[in-house]
Automatic annotation (TrEMBL):
<dbReference type="Pfam" id="PF00282">
    <property type="entry name" value="Pyridoxal_deC"/>
</dbReference>
<keyword id="KW-0663">Pyridoxal phosphate</keyword>
<comment type="similarity">
    <text>Belongs to the group II decarboxylase family.</text>
</comment>
<dbReference type="InterPro" id="IPR015424">
    <property type="entry name" value="PyrdxlP-dep_Trfase"/>
</dbReference>
<feature type="modified residue" description="N6-(pyridoxal phosphate)lysine">
    <location>
        <position position="326"/>
    </location>
</feature>
<dbReference type="GO" id="GO:0030170">
    <property type="term" value="F:pyridoxal phosphate binding"/>
</dbReference>
<dbReference type="InterPro" id="IPR042099">
    <property type="entry name" value="ANL_N_sf"/>
</dbReference>
<keyword id="KW-0210">Decarboxylase</keyword>
<dbReference type="InterPro" id="IPR002129">
    <property type="entry name" value="PyrdxlP-dep_de-COase"/>
</dbReference>
<dbReference type="InterPro" id="IPR015421">
    <property type="entry name" value="PyrdxlP-dep_Trfase_major"/>
</dbReference>
<dbReference type="GO" id="GO:0005737">
    <property type="term" value="C:cytoplasm"/>
</dbReference>
<keyword id="KW-0456">Lyase</keyword>
<dbReference type="GO" id="GO:0019752">
    <property type="term" value="P:carboxylic acid metabolic process"/>
</dbReference>
<protein>
    <submittedName>
        <fullName>Uncharacterized protein</fullName>
    </submittedName>
</protein>
<dbReference type="GO" id="GO:0016831">
    <property type="term" value="F:carboxy-lyase activity"/>
</dbReference>
Length: 1036
């Protein structure tokens, strides 16, 4: 017998007739009485909340605890009855866990308390829905759209009937929709054929550096790809800089990118800045690109006659959007998306499905938006805005907006006048960023402190602030959305911040004081020999999961070493340079182990490392010291042209290539730095310089200045480093002065406040002659002169001190591949202090092992901040003397003393001469003139420079010194050996250096050149205390 198969969609016969009881339960489910009771309860609770005036932020609960509470409020069975008490408890839990947007303590986010009457209407539209995409379902909502479209069109200044507005659910969706319109307009085949049909040029969008994350996310959504997002640089007010943006767009075009949409901001999320719309509109037009403005926050300024001028040029945009649920104070989500040209909106989604779209337009379908917005079912949120506008008019919105913006300006002025607060930007809207910096707190500690303060203030429950990171600095962020907030509330949150900061710092000081010292790391010691606290800290900040990357992708996701240092600082409650040397050494040793693992990802480095020490991990300094030294020749092979030595290929992320002229070898070279690591290096070195030098000499509450004469020296070795470091010194204004002329110097010295100048020795020496005509106040304001690339004679130093009574002269040491290596902290001592955490600084013997204290050796550095392009044990090209480590309460660091260029180098003026090349050229010159076969008779040769007497002698040790001296004098004539030595020095110059130094420059240097023959065993040849005979002895 055949049986009919049951249709799964067919109900059992038993369910065909609904019982009376079941019918009653359904009626209860939709009970009007329950609705009335619940609504009454909710309105009462909300009215009480709105009437209150308590200071509240948000009470965060642990997710597990909140989940347990919520689970207990659920009915235990599959069928339950309405319980007013249970409803009240659920309502209480909702209100308890919500941010108290109606409280004066709420200063954190960009969503506002709403107009109460709009919230009531939101409930009405929930009970009686009018889905707003189609007219037949949402008549009133579509009419409200058109009415507000007319209203805002008049405020923008667009001609009636020539533009259009679409409502959508949030600016994230509005931005995506506008970019789709731009894409379909500029790349008309993309909707059907995709981006592949566009040819060889890659479609791209351009956004400001501070663009909201939803804007950059669009690139991935619409198929462009994140690699095709061009970041447009900002100016000092964090607005898109038109000039630099133009260069960025030109560069993108050169790289084969077709920028079809430029996205600007009216009210950036970070600080509320408005981009310069007229200039960007012209720029977009020149590139045939669409200009869209994300005006989610500040777009509402259109309703205010006072604030509307801040949006000057917004009407030139092809499209823009604004969030009514932010600064028009209606329930979320309600976003208005405007198009300057009518008809563009429907090109976002060019499709016509029969079940929702009619084939012909009539008077009803003409006003609907379904074909223009992403949503099919769209809440009629526009009705909340239209209702409030209809009841209260435009000025109700304008009055609140104007108050919030004015109050934010008041908050700025109040905070800016507090000595322990830093306010970097004057607000353009109701968003204010600031940093609390208590006296004595390390600037590198401030970012973590702001996060701790945000968390502590939030946990206390009275106030709620947010945070933002700008240029690597975490700041507290205040968004004023409540018109009841006054100056007393700003003063209250400031007092709360100070209270928590005191508690944090006192707790950390107590914890730090309780920590005991740790045994010192010695060369060759294994990490297992450390006391547990030092070893454990190193493992804490560099956990095992980060120690052994296998691929370039693994390296790219590694946190920067800066993060490890900051973690260590937070854990110990002190700066890295104040840590015990033993603790610092443990962290550095573990970092070296990680760097070797990173380098081994690259086959070239792996072969170089494994060939020296085998394949075992590097876990000690002894193992690390067995690695071969890396010099300039190796770097040329590793990082020039194809750059085979990079762990992360050049196309994988952003790099800066620093070119060096090759002052000694004559071979131009390139050094590769990941941009992020380079900026971290600048910040770390700049903070050290600010803390240990500028804070000591540039005192007072007013403006402070630091200038460099290396601003035009950016592509020459350390020049690029110096400018970058100086720009990152906290609290100091930076001047890139370029070549120092009398006019430039005296103009700069007229600025109020103390000043420091960094430059090469020749430029600093010149400043002694620039004092004439300066006022006493200006002369007194010159506090610090930092010089490098040469030496300053005692006379020059005396002249500088006479001209500038308050001046301290210090030297710095920087070099390509190593950036800022050392800084002279004590003007009475030539010792240089290494910047802790920036490099491993080694003074090594020819066998690569460490020199003893007091012994001279090669300066070798390993850049600790380098992941993508590591360089291990780089021989800088200088000889230094290892000095005892500095141990003091505020600074513990390695120290060394500069002895001269290695291999060796002679400094005359601002030119470096390779001593071996000069020696060979002088020998050849003496042979060519038939004066002396130096290499045949000499047992030793040494260049001796006396900078006080300005003389340079080539001292030749020979047993026949007495007899040969008379013969040579007769052959040389009255001019002596000076012409031959000068000729030799000139011949020794590389092609590159010959452009800047010649015979005339040597003659004008004021030096006297001569050879001197001496007995080899006598005291005339200078030897080190270890018996070595350096080729160059530089006597200052």
């Amino acid at each position: 017998m055949l049986h009919r198969r049951k249709d799964l969609n067919e109900l059992d016969d038993s369910s065909a007739f609904t019982s009376k009881a079941d019918s009653a339960s359904l009626e209860e489910f939709f009970s009007v009485g329950d609705f009335t009771a619940a609504a009454h309860q909710a309105v009462k609770r909300l009215a009480d909340m709105l009437s209150g005036d308590s200071l509240e932020g948000v009470r965060l609960q642990r997710p597990a605890d909140l989940m347990a509470r919520a689970r207990n409020l659920m009915v235990a069975t599959d069928r339950g009855r309405f319980d007013l008490h249970r409803f009240s408890e659920i309502l209480d839990l909702y209100l308890e866990t919500a941010i108290k947007v109606n409280s004066r303590g709420y200063m954190a986010r960009q969503f506002s308390s709403v107009m109460p009457v709009a919230a009531v209407f939101d409930m009405v539209s929930a009970m009686v829905p009018q889905p707003a995409s189609y007219y037949e379902a949402g008549q009133f909502a579509n009419i409200a759209d058109r009415l507000l479209e007319e209203t805002f069109g008049r405020l923008i200044g667009w001609p009636h009937g020539r533009f259009e507005m679409v409502t959508t659910s949030g600016a994230s969706l509005a931005n995506m929709t506008a970019v789709l319109v731009a894409r379909n307009h500029c790349l008309p085949q993309s909707w059907n054929g995709g981006l592949a049909v566009q040819g060889s040029r890659r479609p791209a969008i351009a956004v400001g550096e501070d663009a909201h994350f939803s804007v950059t996310r669009v690139a991935g959504i619409v198929g462009i790809g994140q690699d095709q997002v061009i970041r447009l640089p900002l100016n000092e007010r964090r607005q898109i800089c038109p000039e630099r943006a133009a260069a960025a767009l030109d560069s993108a075009a050169f790289r084969g990118l077709d920028v079809f949409c430029v996205i600007a901001s009216a009210g950036t999320t970070s600080i509320g800045a408005n981009d310069p719309f007229p200039e960007l509109a012209a720029l977009a037009k020149r590139h045939r690109a669409w200009l869209h403005v994300d005006a989610a926050h500040n777009g509402a300024f259109l309703v205010s006659d006072r604030l509307r001028p801040r949006l000057s040029g917004l009407g030139l945009a092809d499209s823009f959007c604004l969030d009514a649920h932010k600064t028009l104070f209606v329930p979320a989500l309600c976003t208005l998306l405007f198009y300057r040209e009518k008809g563009m909106a429907e090109t976002a989604f060019p499709q016509k499905d029969s079940y929702v779209f009619d084939p012909f337009e009539d008077e009803m379908t003409a006003v609907q938006s379904g074909v223009k917005n992403f949503e099919c079912t769209k809440r009629p949120a526009i009705l909340n805005l239209w209702l409030a506008w209809s009841l209260y008019g435009r000025h109700a919105f304008a009055d609140k907006l104007e108050y919030l913006v004015t109050m934010t300006g008041v908050a700025h002025d109040y905070l800016a006048n507090q000595p322990d607060f830093f306010v970097p930007y004057r607000p353009e809207s109701n968003i204010l960023c600031f940093v609390h910096r208590p006296a004595g707190v390390d600037s590198r500690r401030l970012s973590l402190l702001q996060i701790q303060l945000r968390d502590r203030v939030r946990a206390a429950g009275q106030y709620l602030l947010s945070k933002v990171e700008l240029d690597g600095q975490t700041m507290l962020r205040m968004v004023l959305m409540n018109h009841r907030i006054g100056l007393h509330d700003i003063q209250g949150v400031v007092a709360e911040i100070r209270r928590h900061a005191r508690d944090i710092l006192e707790n950390e000081a107590t914890q730090s004081a309780s920590r005991s010292g740790i045994c010192r790391l010695q060369p060759g010691a294994n990490m297992m020999n450390f006391a547990s606290s030092s070893r454990d800290l190193a493992k804490l900040v560099l956990p095992e999961t980060m120690m052994h990357p296998r691929t370039a992708d693994d390296v790219l996701v590694l946190p920067p070493f800066l993060a490890a240092l900051q973690h260590a600082q937070a854990h110990l409650g002190c700066r890295v340079d104040a840590m015990p040397l033993e603790t610092h050494a443990a962290i550095i040793e573990r970092r070296l182990s990680q760097l070797v693992s990173i380098a081994r990802v690259n086959p070239l480095w792996r072969q170089r490392i494994d060939g020296a020490i085998g394949t075992d991990p590097v876990n000690s300094l002894k193992q690390f010291q067995a690695l071969p030294l890396t010099d300039k020749e190796v770097c040329q092979q590793m990082f020039t042209q194809t750059r085979p030595g990079m762990v992360v290929p050049i196309e994988r992320c952003g790099f800066e290539i620093v070119a060096s002229g090759g002052t000694s070898s004559g071979k131009p070279s390139e050094t590769v730095y990941p941009l992020g690591e380079l900026q971290e290096t600048y910040g770390w070195a700049g903070d050290f310089m600010g803390w240990h030098v500028m804070a000591r000499y540039l005192t007072g509450d007013g403006a402070k200045w630091v200038a460099t004469t290396l601003a035009d020296y950016q592509m020459w070795s350390s020049g690029t480093m110096v400018g970058g470091v100086l720009q990152r010194i906290p609290g100091v204004n930076y001047i890139g002065a370029g070549p120092m002329s009398l006019e430039v110097f005296q103009l700069m010295m007229s600025y109020p406040g103390p000043k420091a100048i960094m430059g090469i020795s020749g430029s600093i020496a010149l400043l002694a002659t620039f004092a004439d005509g300066l006022s006493r106040e200006a002369r007194d304001s010159f506090r610090v002169a930092l010089y490098g690339s040469g030496v300053l004679t005692p006379k020059v130093r005396a002249d500088l001190r006479e001209a500038y009574p308050n001046l301290t002269v210090l030297s710095y040491f920087a070099a390509v591949q190593a950036e800022t290596i050392g800084l002279q902290l004590d003007p009475e001592s030539p010792v240089l202090t290494a910047v802790p955490g920036l490099h491993l600084v080694e003074v090594v013997r020819p066998d690569g092992q460490w020199a003893e204290e007091g012994e001279e050796g090669e300066l070798v550095v390993t850049r600790l901040f380098g992941n993508a392009a590591p360089v291990l044990r780089y021989k800088v090209g200088d000889r230094v003397i290892r000095r005892p480590d500095l141990r003091s309460p505020g600074l513990n660091a390695m120290q060394f003393e500069y002895a001269g260029r290695s291999g060796d180098f002679i400094h005359i003026g601002d030119t470096q001469y390779s001593a071996p090349r000069a020696l060979a050229a002088i020998i050849a010159e003496f042979r060519r003139r038939q004066v002396l076969e130096i290499d045949r008779v000499a047992t030793d040769t040494q260049f001796q420079i006396d900078r006080t007497k300005r003389q340079l002698h080539m001292v030749i040790g020979t047993p026949d010194a007495a007899s040969l001296s008379a013969q040579i004098a007769a052959r040389l004539g009255p001019e002596g050996s000076s012409p031959l030595m000068i000729a030799g020095f000139v011949r020794s110059l590389s092609v590159f250096n010959a452009l800047e130094a010649n015979e005339a420059s040597l003659l004008s240097s004021g030096y006297r050149f001569a050879i001197r023959l001496v007995e080899p065993s006598g005291a005339d040849l200078v030897r080190t205390e270890f018996g070595k005979l350096p080729l160059v002895v530089d006597r200052v």
